Amino acid sequence: MSGTLLDVFNGPDAPAGDDLATCVHCGLCLNACPTFRVTGLETESPRGRIYLMTQWQRGQLPFTDELARHIDLCLGCRTCEAVCPSGVPYGRIIEHGRAEVERLRSRRTQPAATRALARGVMRELLPHPGRLRAAGRLTWAAQRLGLTRVVPAGRGLPRLRRAWRPPASNRAPALGSRRARVAFLNGCVMPVMYRNAMEASVRLLQLAGCEVWFAPGQTCCGALFAHNGDLEEARRLRDRNARAFGMEDFDYLVVNSAGCGSHLKDFYPNLGDRVRDLSEILVELGLPEAQRPVPVRVSYQDACHLAHAQRIKKQPRDLIRAVPGVELVEMQHADICCGSAGIYNALEPPMSARILEEKMDDLLGTGAAVVVTGNPGCQMQLDAGLRGRRSPMQVWHLAELLVKAYDQ
Q: Model pTM?
């Protein structure tokens, strides 16, 4: 669709000019960017996308759907931030860039149908735990009947079971002497898709001496909305969570999903400085001596929003190495995105698949029996890739590995 210079990038949520100006176009981000790595195209690089947004904002380049596709194809993995010498806040730029792209598209007679549908479904499901659990039960039944194998997106889902719920008292006591009182983010998809990881996370916190509080009334943190340009809904969910977590005092807000933790630290001014990834708090407080060895060869996949947005790479590896019996084998390019990127694999399946293939080559080269990560999207994507390669390698959340050292 053609565009005009009237479609200027100047809406209330457009990227700030000062943010865009921090990019000096040095190109050091290129080889770190997954989409540039597989295409070799300047327009699929961080500096190429920043150039597009800058020209749109200045009115020097028409806004067209063809050009906006380059913004769509960004994973938002923020790998570029970790290698940028100029400190470009690319995560903030791409979130606001997507918000502005969607604003301009909404003025057109033919908005991007897939993205509009995804936004509507997300708004109707993610902030509503009851609806999510109901969707999980329906999906579980469809899996039992083999119906999910018919749809490509269904084949990528993990095998579901009964959803995790916090205890009725909304509290879990510390095991041994209490060293901290922490709030725990229940999240949205984790309780439905990864019950084992949720149970393991809570138990590890208890073993580390934490009294765990599950704030009633909390909801989806809004990360998936912000990452996909729906900043209006992200702000609404932020306000709702701020009220929920403001009901009681706590030392830290613990998160076991990398994307959620990154979003809370960046987007929640009244909570961000108290947010800790599960690996951070476990290293800080320490775990008791392991009760049994876990003899397994493991590789570790850095979740993008843990390694690049939160700059947490050492803590998960230290925890893995501390488990007796575990052999940690590093894969090549462990900190390059696997192609999941929230709902990117559903919105952009061809590009996601190209990136995943490179990741599978690196992962299978380790000879590991298990790959560990710290984000549900990575778990789902890696599991789908391994099934596609007919590999017996398993995918575990970090908490699932660590808790095995304490299983009776």
A: 0.92
